[in-house]
Amino acid sequence: MPSKKNATAIDKPKKDYTFFENVWAVARLIPKGRVTSYGAIAKYLGGSPRVVGYAMNGCGDVKPKVPAHRVLNRNGLLTGRHHFNPPELMQQLLEKEKIKVEKDQVVDFKRLFWDPATEL
DNA sequence: GTATTGACCGTAG
DNA sequence: TCTACGGCCAATA
Q1: Fewer CB within 10 Å, N or C, chain A?
Q2: Which nucleotides of B are covered by protein (CB under 7 A)?
Q3: Contacts of A117 by beta carbon, 8 Å cutoff, 6+ apart
Q4: Is the CB of A30 under 7 A from strand B?
Q5: Is residue A117 part of a domain?
Q6: Where are the alpha helices (DSSP H) in A46-84?
Q7: How many structural domains are present in chain A?
Q8: Is the residue at A54 inside a domain?
């Protein structure tokens, strides 16, 4: 598909959010009951973790909805939970996928970790 | 156009 | 073990 990458996000774009769409795409590829980290996605896309986090900042405006709750930091900590609405939603969604969360941290994160660079 | 910030990561002290 | 610093890319002020 030629033309028009269009980013449906942040509905005032006029710009190619290609990288953002990539991040969202990978986020949607995360299997249910699994989690990954910003750095893993960044590495897979060849970018920096900060941009991945920034991309997630607009995940609420993106459709279909992006499972940002499956994306955590390297420690498996729910650092971005304050960006959700409500903030507790993130943990709720994780528990809904049979993922145990304790003190804003995913239990057995190492075991549930899903690395795009490895799995893809 | 420059400076600061951001849901981060890795290494050094 | 814990704290401090730099690097990475893009958006915002």
Answers
A1: N
A2: 6-10
A3: A40, A43, A44
A4: no
A5: no
A6: 49-57
A7: 1
A8: yes
- What CATH number should be reported for the domain holding residue A105? 1.10.10.10
pLDDT of A16 reads: 61
Predicted structure pTM score? 0.84
Q: pLDDT for A53-86, tens place per residue?
A: 999 988 877 778 899 999 999 999 999 899 988 8
A15 sits within 7 Å of strand C by its CB = yes
- All residues at 6 or more sequence positions from A82 whose CB lies less than 8 Å from its CB, including other chains: none
Does any strand C atom come closer than 7 Å to the Cβ of A38?
no
| Closest alpha carbon to A72 in A63, A61, A81, A64 | A81
Could you list the residue range(s) of the whole structural domain that residue A34 is in? Answer: 18-112
Residue A38: CB less than 7 A from any atom in strand B: yes
Strand B–CB A35 distance below 7 A: no
